[in-house]
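can u do me a favor
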């Protein structure tokens, strides 16, 4: 039976999970942790580092360590979010050839889907090691408020990593799946998801195996990173006031401050105040050193970040209005994401929803578990689990005057279809250009352009006399199709809207091939390491027996020859362990096993006699 995993590709941490014997289970990584930092680094030697090993060296290699890549995935270079990330991160972002965002590490430029693929590839290998077999398919979660380009970029990341992404599902929806899985109840649930980089809230009706999303909203640039930046900026200001030094241009100092801000923010979820101690934070050109030692209280943290929490509450309020649901109609509130451990967040949620949030889910693992449940349902074609999701953004076209005409409103259950009849706006107009847009602004230029096409061959006539019907369709997989038909002649033109991640098909194919080559190298390296450890163990056993065997066999020329050969085998083994020739190491293993068997036989025979 093939393996299909669920993956929560998070801003700060990622999770891979699978359903085993009907139970969703998070797969621990190589270090035994259930979450893997979504961090990627390139070492001085050019080696790729992912996860905890990348995080541990972030301070000393800050310019070549990427964190929070999810905040950039699928975004355009001229996006305000791109500028914000560029101003606060120690790594370098550059403009891509297609107006997308790229990241420069060690003089090599990477696309954001490629960097995200490094994390996914690590999770893929973790799952394969745990399961003992190949993993080629996955369900991957995304923030509910991601647009089509961001979703496509996530799919491309999966493809580069060697995964067939069989479904993209929203993070709050995945959390609700995990929360309601196996429970026989009917509940209306609000999922409040505040993670490392994004915020989502979804209202769902759960009952009899049906998970129906009623409404969803969010902010794809609001999360723990923003809280940490507030603390980091406060520390920078305090340090500058006391020393006269502005450390904003020192990458190592910025990375140390960022790590300290994150650590302090986490600690203040359980203590009232914490000490931030950074000795030798900055050294001037003249050699003068400056240290930072500052106490941050929970009250100060809440003052610094209260407006961020208030923004999440405003979005919750809008979501309930869109769903035409009152606070009193919500049965349960589920908290998702590491930021929901913050006491201010918990108080704000409890006050708004007028009830204490549920404590029965793990905020860091629940989304990955939900993704694995959806993966298992798709694999087994389980008819007892039905997921009805909604489109997070309105879809429509640009009309005369640059206005946006909505055909499918946000929070419409998919699959769905809708049409509208338009007329020509100029005399003797023989063609119309259809611009397909996604967003909520009445100004078409402020929304996301998904695609465009032209319907030509219209009859020449006074304006308003020729009618064109435009029809939008969205499949259960979120594929958008748009058709325009001349109602007089029946002539039709249509497109299937394919969102773009900023990568061409040629670039994608090249990255897929490079990823496959990397996997071959990694597996060969892992196999060599396993064989090296085996050889190391055999060498220790032979070394342990050597003095005893030498005392028994050194009295004859045959014995001395056997001992000399054994010494030669040991010397070769120590030499090959330092190399990288797997075949030679395998030959050494065989020689060591023969030598060890001979040594054991000599010792056993001597003891018996």
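np, heres the sequence
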């Amino acid at each position: 039976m093939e393996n299909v995993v669920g993956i929560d590709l998070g801003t700060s941490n990622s999770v891979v999970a699978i359903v085993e014997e009907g139970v969703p289970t998070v797969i621990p990584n190589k270090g035994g942790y259930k979450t893997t930092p979504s961090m990627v680094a390139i070492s001085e030697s050019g080696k790729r580092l992912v996860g905890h090993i990348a995080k541990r060296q972030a301070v000393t290699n800050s310019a070549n360590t990427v964190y929070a890549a999810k905040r950039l995935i699928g975004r355009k270079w001229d996006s305000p979010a791109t500028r914000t990330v560029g101003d606060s991160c120690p790594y370098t972002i550059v403009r891509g050839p297609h107006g997308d965002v790229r990241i420069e590490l060690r003089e090599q430029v990477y696309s954001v889907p490629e960097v995200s693929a490094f994390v996914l590839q690590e999770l893929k290998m973790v799952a394969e090691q745990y399961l003992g077999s190949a993993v080629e398919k996955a369900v991957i979660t995304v923030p509910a408020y991601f647009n089509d380009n961001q979703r496509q970029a996530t799919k491309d990341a999966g493809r580069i990593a060697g995964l067939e992404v069989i479904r993209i599902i929203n993070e709050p929806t995945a959390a609700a799946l995990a929360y309601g899985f196996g429970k026989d109840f009917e509940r209306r649930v609000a999922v409040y998801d505040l993670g490392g980089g994004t915020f989502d809230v979804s209202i769902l009706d759960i009952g009899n195996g049906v998970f129906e999303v009623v409404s969803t909203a969010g902010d794809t640039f609001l999360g723990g990173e923003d809280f940490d930046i507030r603390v980091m900026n406060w520390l920078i200001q305090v340090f500058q006031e006391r020393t006269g030094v502005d450390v904003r241009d020192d990458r190592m100092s910025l990375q140390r401050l960022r790590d300290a801000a994150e650590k302090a923010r986490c600690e203040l979820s359980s203590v009232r105040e914490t000490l931030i101690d950074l000795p030798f934070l900055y050294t001037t050109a003249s050699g003068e050193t400056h240290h930072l030692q500052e106490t941050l209280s929970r009250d100060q943290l809440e003052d610094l970040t209260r407006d961020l929490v208030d923004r999440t509450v405003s979005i919750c309020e809008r979501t309930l209005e869109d769903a035409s649901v009152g606070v009193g109609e919500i049965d349960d509130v589920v908290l998702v994401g590491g930021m929901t451990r913050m006491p201010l967040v918990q108080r704000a949620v409890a006050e708004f929803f007028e009830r204490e949030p549920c404590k029965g889910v793990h905020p860091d693992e629940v989304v990955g578990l939900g993704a694995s449940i959806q993966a298992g349902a798709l694999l087994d074609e389980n008819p007892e689990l039905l997921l009805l999701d909604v489109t997070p953004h309105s879809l429509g076209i640009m009309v005369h005057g640059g206005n946006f005409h909505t055909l499918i409103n946000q929070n419409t259950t998919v699959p769905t279809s809708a049409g509208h009849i338009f007329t020509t706006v100029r005399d003797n107009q023989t063609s119309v250009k259809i611009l397909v847009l996604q967003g909520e602004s009445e100004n078409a230029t402020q929304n996301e352009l998904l695609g465009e096409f032209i319907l030509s061959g219209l009859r020449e006539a006074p304006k308003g006399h020729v009618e064109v019907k435009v029809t939008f369709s969205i499949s259960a997989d979120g594929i958008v199709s748009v058709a325009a038909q001349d109602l007089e002649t029946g002539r039709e033109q249509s497109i299937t809207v394919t969102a773009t991640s900023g990568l061409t098909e040629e670039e994608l194919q090249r990255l897929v091939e490079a990823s496959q080559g990397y996997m071959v190298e990694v597996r060969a390296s892992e196999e060599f390491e396993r064989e090296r450890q085996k050889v190391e163990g055999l060498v220790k056993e032979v070394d342990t027996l050597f003095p005893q065997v030498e005392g028994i066999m050194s009295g004859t020329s045959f014995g001395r020859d056997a001992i000399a050969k054994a010494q030669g085998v040991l010397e070769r083994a120590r030499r090959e362990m330092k190399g990288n020739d797997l075949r030679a190491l395998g030959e050494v293993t065989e020689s060591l096993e023969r030598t060890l068997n001979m040594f054991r036989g000599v010792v056993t025979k001597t003891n018996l006699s």
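The longest strand covers residues 273-283. hope that helps!!
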